[in-house]
Known about the structure:
mainly alpha, 4 helices
Amino acid sequence: MAIPGPQRSVPDMISDxxxxxxxLFRKEAQLARAEMSENMATVGRGLGLIIAGxxxxxxxxxxxxQAAVTAVGDRYDLAPTWSAxxxxxxxxxxxxxxxxxxxxxLRFEHIMPNKTVHQLQRDAAVAKEKVSRSHDPRxxx
Length: 141
């Protein structure tokens, strides 16, 4: 069964294919840049909030830790040195745990433009399918 419509030459079809592919990749590059900008803005805002929170929390934490050292010393009748070591050790463990959780959330895959990568993979599959169809000997006959 013949395909209705005007017949195009193979060089015209190949030229059109390259034009469409180049346009597609240009649009995908624009999408990737936009997505990366959005992701970087989100990371920047997050880091700004972390810094602001740290600036406000550090002085209050020092005061609360001094109060905890005094409370442990009074409650368990310990020397101030031992109270400070106990409280400092507990806070150190908590701090390391929070630090490791924070590092795990700043991984590379959270910054990658996943939508764009997925779209590029789909576009490549479609382009490959079109090229294989245009070289199919059954369709050329």
